[in-house]
Amino acid sequence: MAKTPSASAPDAPEAPAGPGKNRPTPSRAEREAARKRPLVADTKEARARAKAELAAKRERARQGMAAGEERYLPARDRGPQRRFARDFTDAGLHLGEAMMPAMVVVILLSLIPITAVSYWGFVALWVYILFVVGDMVILSIRVKRAAAAKFGKERMEKGLGWYASMRTIQMRFMRLPKPQVKLFQYPS
Length: 188
Description:
The protein is mainly alpha-helical. 56% of the residues lie in helices and 0% in strands.
């Protein structure tokens, strides 16, 4: 009596159903069913995970921009000449930095019921604004000259003086990107 192959190993374990030749080829319907999933994940966990990832990306971009990393800066702040103008501006003390506190003082003075105090407060503010504009013009000229000496007059970007002077009317601790130089450390 001849033994058949199935009779010789009655207790043999079945082959694992993994990829490869160990199982029959799946039908087209089975493959399509395995690929089907919603286009947009609508689970609460997926939304929460996407929200957390977006928040982490935004926080990294905010930190990178504050640190002055070139890839996180907006287009108006990119480039070596803009960095030079920022560093040149941040190295000095400027009248424009105290503009906001001066305006707050004038507003408080205008609340005093004495007309002369309010009047002279506004006059002083306008005189101060004239000095701030003068400081901005002088800084613009200085930045343009220093940048022309460093980068060459023919390679100067447009608007460099305006960029530097607009930075002076922001208080130092509120500037973005944050100042990368200490006071009186002018770039060379």
